[in-house]
Amino acid sequence: MDIVRIILALLLPPVAAFLTVGIGLHFWLNILLTIFFFVPGMIHAIWLVVKKNE
Q1: DSSP letters along the chain, please?
Q2: 18: number of Cβ within 10 Å
Q3: Rounded CA gap, 2 and 38, in Å?
Q4: For residue 54, what pLDDT band results from cuts at 50, 70 and 90?
Q5: Span 8-49, pLDDT tens digits
Q6: pLDDT of residue 30
Q7: Alpha-carbon distance 15 to 9, whole Å?
Q8: Would the N or C end of the chain have less CB density within 10 A of its end CB?
Q9: Rg (alpha carbons) of the chain, rounded to whole number
Q10: Count of domains in the chain?
Q11: Please, what is the Cα angle at 6 between 2 and 11, to 5 degrees?
Q12: Residue 29's domain spans which residues?
């Protein structure tokens, strides 16, 4: 499942954030980052996925 989340983080960062943390602060922050700057949204989503597995 982590591989799917990482792939989603690269393609659709808010979906990966939602699947990882649900609807919360990090989800809304990721949507803002993705809307304004796509690459920081990807980085944030990957960070959420990796951090969740620690």
Answers
A1: -HHHHHHHHHH-HHHHHHHHH-SSHHHHHHHHHHHH-HHHHHHHHHHHHHHHT-
A2: 19
A3: 21
A4: low
A5: 999 999 999 999 999 999 999 999 999 998 999 999 999 999
A6: 96
A7: 7
A8: C
A9: 9
A10: 1
A11: 145
A12: 2-52
The contacts of residue 41 (CB under 8 Å, 6+ apart) are: 13, 14, 30, 31, 33, 34, 35
Burial of 40 (0-12, 13-18, 19+ CB in 10 A): middle
Angle at 20 between CA 47 and CA 9, to 5 degrees: 55
Sign of CA dihedral 21, 13, 32, 40: positive
Q: Is the pTM of this model over 0.70?
A: yes
Non-local (6+) Cβ contacts of 38 within 8 A are 13
| CA distance linking residue 54 with residue 32, whole number of Å | 25
